[in-house]
Every structure is written in C-alpha cells, then in structure tokens.
TrEMBL record:
Keyword S-adenosyl-L-methionine: no
Region forming the signal peptide: 1-29
TonB-dependent receptor-like beta-barrel domain mapped to chain residues: 371-793
Official protein name in the record: TonB-dependent receptor
Record organism: Stutzerimonas zhaodongensis
Pfam hit, one: Plug
Amino acid sequence: MSTYRSGTRHAGFRISLLALAVSAGSAWAEEPLVMEHVEVIGQAVSIDEALRDQRNSDSVKSVVHADGIGQLPDDNAAEALQRIPGLSVERDQGEGRFVSVRGIAPDLNSVTINGTLVPSPESGRRAVALDVLPSELVQSLSVVKTLTPDMDANSLGGTIEVESLSAFDHDGLFYSLSTEASYDENVGETSPKFSGAISNRFSLGGGVDNFGVAAALSWQDRDFGSDNVETGGKWDFEDDGARMREFEQRDYEITRERTGFGLNFDYQPDDFSSYYLRTLYSRFKDTETRNAAGVELEDAQLAGEFGDAEGWRELKSREETQTIQSYVFGGERMMGLWTLSGQVGYSEARERNPGGISSATFEGDFAEVGFSSTNKPRLTVDPSFYDPASFELDEVEWEKTDARDKEKNIRLDLARDYDIQGYASQLKFGGKLSRRDKTNDAEIWAYDDFDDLTLADFQGGKVDYALDRFGPGISAGGLEGLIGGLDASEFYNEEESRIGDFDMSEDINAAYFMNTVDLDKWRIIAGLRYEGTEFSAKGTGLRDGEFEAVSSDNRYDHWLPGLHTRYELTPDTFIRAAWTNTVVRPTFEQLAPGFFIEDDEAAFGNPDLKPLESMNYDLGIEHYMGRAGAVSAYLFYKDIDNFIYNTDLAGTGQWTGFDEALSFENGSSAKLYGVELAYSQKLDWLPAPWNGVLLGANATFSKSDAEIEGQGSRRSIDLPNHSDSVGNLMVGWENDVFNMRLAANYKSEYLAEVAGIDDAAHDLYADDQLFVDFKAGYFITPNLQVTLEALNLTDESYFVYTGRSNYNAQYEEYGPTYKLGLTLTHF
C-alpha cells in the first residue's frame, strides 16, 4: 500500500525479470512511486500490461508481473540483474555471483530482501553473493540508483532490492511447477533442478480475500568445473623482455547444491491497514576438488628458455555451505491524513566449512624446465614431472571455518498529506535502528614431517584438464586416512588459527525528514538524513612470535542532504534530476584488527579506516513510444572521498625499516562520471511475422579518476573493480505459443588489484568479457511450456593480466551449458 495518498507517487526506474526477458535491457518505463528515486524493478506480466501500468502511474517505470519469472536464461538473482542497464556481474566458476552497479565494485553497493539488509556470508566482505538466491524465490528485483532520505545511505552505485512472492501478486489460486536438466560441456555432466511456487487468498473475519499465503521452493544439484592456468602476476619486466618466476595449472571439479524456500503472509483487515510477514531461507553448498600442478623457477626465465625449478602438486578438497535467512514483519495504517508504517527485520548469513583439506602439497626438483606463451602458458618439462614417484609429500593443511553475519533492525515512518496553496504535498519523517555483528573463527592444522611418502602412495583418478598435459591426480580419501591416524593436537597451527579470528559490531542510528510537493508539472522532494555509526572490533595480533589482544573503537556521524526533481515535458516524456549524498563503510577484511609482524615483514587490517563519502548528481530523460517501447538517457557524476585501496606501507612512518607492510589505506578523493543509455521496443506495427520481433539494448559508459600515495610516491589509477563500459543487447521473437531470445552481456576490463605505489607494471587487470545466451520456449498447452537454453555460447573465459594484456596472471575457461526444462503454470 502506498504511503502517499495524494495521487502523486514517487518516480522510479523499474525493470523486471520479464521486461528483461523481453528487452534484455528492459523497457525503461519508470514510475513515480512513494518517493522519488531512480529505480529498476521487476514483477512479471506481459510487457503490454507493464507499460499500461506505467502510463497510468505518476512515474517512469518498467514493470512486469509474476508470470514472467523464469523467462530469462538465468539461474540466480545475480544473473537476472545483469540484464538491467548499468549492471554487470562478477562470476565464480562461470556463474554470476556479485553484482556491480554502474561499474562500481559490489562491496560498495547494498542488498535488501523484503526491506531488510542482507548480511554477507563471506567473512571479509559486505557484498552479498546473489547466486545464493535461486531466481524462483524472487518475485521482483530492483536497483535504486539515487537514494531518497528515507532509505539507508549505504551504497555508492545502488541498492539492490529483492522482493519475494506475495499472494496479492495474483488473483486467487496461483501455482507454478518447473523441472530442468542442464548439461555442462566442460565436465560432461547432466544436472537436475526442480522448483515450484503457490499462492492463494482467503477470507478472514468480515473481509473478502483479505488474507494471503504464498510459498516457493527451489532445489538444484549442479556438477560442473573449470580449467585454469595462472602465474599470480609473478613476472619480472626487464629490458630484454618479461621473465616468469612461477606458474600453476589448476583443474576444478564442483558440485553446487542450491536449496531455497520462502513462506509469506499478507493480511489486509480493512481499506486503511495492511500487515505482512516475509520469510526466506536459502542454502548454497559447494563441494570442490581442485588439483593443481606448478613450478617455481630457480631463476626467472623468458619464454623458450630452460632452467632448474621446484615443482609441486597440490590438492584442495573441501565442502563449504552458505546460508541466508531473513524474517521481516511490518505493516501500515492510515489515520486520516496521516500514514504510519513500520517494520522489524532480522537476517543472518553464515559460511561454514566443517573441515577439509585446504592444501596438500607434494614437492620435487626438476631440470630443463621451460614454458611457451605468456598469456596462456604451457609447460615444457622432463617426463619425470608426470611420474607420481617424483613428488614427496611435504604438508597437509586441514582447515575448519565458521563466519557469521547477523543484522537486526527496526524502522518507523510517519507521513502526513497536506496542501500548499492547492498543491499536493507530503511531509514524511522517521528513524531506524540497526545492529550488526560479524564474527569469524578459523581452526587450522598443519601436518608435516612425513618420511618416504610420495604421490604414488596417494594417486587419485585421471584429471580432466583441457589446457595442457596434467599428470596424476591426488586422492583426498587417502590423505584423510593418513592424518586421521595422527594426534591432531601436535599439529595445531595456533598462529594461522588466531590471527584471522575477529568479532566486530556495527551499530547505526538513523533519522530523517523529507517533503514532497507537486507544482503543476514538477514534483520536488527535499530532505535530510542523519546516520551515526559506532564500530568496535576485537581480534588477535602476532608480533615476533608473541600474541597480542587487539581491540578498536570508532565513531562517526554523517548528515546527508538530498534533492530530487521530476518534470513532465510531455505526456510521454519526463526529465529527472537528483542530488544525493551517501556513505559506504569499509569491508570487514579491510577493518580486520588482526596483524602479523615478523622481522621486516608485516600484514594487517586497518580498523581506523574512514568510510567512503560520495556526493552524487544524476540527470536524465525518458521517452515512451509504441508498444513495449521506451528510450532513456542518464548522466551521472560522483565525487568520492576516502576511497580505500590495498597498499604496501614499507619504508614509511613506523614501517620505515620494513621490506613489506601490506595493509589498506584511504585515498584522498576520486571521481566517477558517465552516461547510461537504454532502448526497447516491440515492432508490432510491422506485418507478420515481423510484428513478433522484440529489440532491447542498453549501455553504460563511465570513467573514474583516483589518486593513491605511499612510500614517498603518488600516482593516478582507475577505481578498483570499475568497468568503464557495460552493455546488453537482445533480439527476440514471440507469438502466443513460441518465443525465443538471444541476449548478449558485455563488461569491459577493470583494475582488479593494485600493486605497490611505485609498481604500476604489476597491477592486475581483469580482461573484458562477452557472454551470449539463448533461450527458446514453446507452449504445448496454454499452461505447459517446454524451454531450451544455451548459455555462454561464446565460450567466454576469465583472463587477468599483469600490467600489459599479454602477460598472464590468471586464465580460466568454463565452456557452454545447455538446459532443457518444462514448466506448468496456473493463475
């Protein structure tokens, strides 16, 4: 229910899953919802119905209703979001995981589920891995790019809002059942997937259909993998060329199981009040086996040269489970001209490894070792490198970890509608209390001093490695049997176990007020938000072999004004401008209190880091034409203070006598600016069959400038993880029984890791990527559809290079995936 009853609801960019399915960059219709902000949202109805809703509203939006969920060739929420203008994804093993907004790193954006913040399962990050959320549990997705004062101010690129299924999204009984089989070409395995959703309304008391129940369930068990070769950026750049110091081949075999469940309740006892309870549970289990083989050259070598080297073979075998659970209770009550709304939320994310081999290493010495190619190196070595008897067991490291992130919040908002000389207005104010706790606990055992044991004693099956000859694999079961017979207490690694442990708390108290007024064709929103943050951290440091307890406290306050305007140029054309201020806290890895100091080397977090502060400007125009037709253009500019980067402080301040002192520092300032373009249209004015053609395209072009300093030097860089070009292109066709769409997603290169201040040559860059996906569907009956999908048709790889594009830091390829599915829907 709206909290603004004067008929002038707030403007927002909305893009839905079906809109994305139909236009891959979505029909940029945007609606004035309750507060004015640039928003992209998805629901799932036909594009025609969506655009009619948009035209009848007071805002610019793109909308779709629930029947379109599953129409995209996407397994999870992250991959669905990549179709939205300005968004791209970071991938893990080829699957979309973290979402970047306008080229800005995922840790600088926030995610909410049903209005409550989603914490991160990973110990060091704020970014939420959205591959934890199956797309079937999602009713709508939105990305709010300009924040109004009543919203949390903790995002630089945008706030991703996830809404789960509600019974009031449908009239009466709704259900959907899907089954799917996917084939991964890289590993040659077929994997199953099942999902379903159901909702209905019931009459309670004297009401009619005023109580709704909705449930959704999804399960997938996927077998896949990748092939990798990497140097880690270990090149020496000299006058006669680039010399490599080491490289490694890796083969990944992964079983990824996703289970998701949501149960939601809605109650509307009368026309003036509504209440809801939203619950969501998602479980993501990764079972990974990684075989690796590598060499460390005694002297750095050019391609084609030969020399002595230490060789190794390594196994990683672990099971890791991530869970997210969220519970939100809220409601709204109208009292004359006043509207009272509130919400209580609790969410918890956890990443747990109950115990596994983090590293089992076998070593040997080899002569006449060389390599060919600098971007995808291939090993040249004596055949003894492929003999398991040539490698002696050096160490087995067993690791057990548990990271938790809990967030509790309560929010209260009060709004009053009134008139200013006949102009509709609204005053709104409120506050929010948020309490967040992040903990990490690791236990590590390092087993060594093995006598006369070689890889031949633990040889596993054949390694299916496509990039080069690999050699024998390693048996995890044999190694587990070996260390299982030893006294674990004798091999406990106290240093590694304690330094990474921490307990952090972050309390945020927020209050705001804002006023909305409609002046003829103008709508103006002005307001101010206050956020006060109290942060504390506890951990352990190690200084020259002695442990030290570490604690840190920090407090800061931010006053964040905002101004939003919208002007109706014509009934089909709108102009919008916004000035906003946001604040983004450092990641937990950057704030970690633990440290390691030994002789002239040190590594440590920085609990005293300042949060990023950004002043943001947005100006845009949208125009709607024809059926499923919209075109928009937006300019944006961000002035950022205190951005954070990793650095080496050796040679400065208290680290003057050190060779290495790795940590994190605040940069002085950075700037990000660009343009965002979007277009979509159905060519229904053409004669058949061309009237079924759907077109969609969007692109974001941006540039960033930042400066870093240390070790007596200063240099300019791009913002880390910022891609200056992101785009989507979609061509589709559909009629009543058949549909197909070809979608392409592009992301340009970006700075992945900053090397030393004076060592730009060893900065790591992730190369550009172009993914092309295809999906076709045929309705056997009006309620039963069979679908065929082909993902990553370009066989796109992941390539990170060192300074220059032909020097490998990491290369990884995944291969295409093919899917066949069947969906039964009733509504």
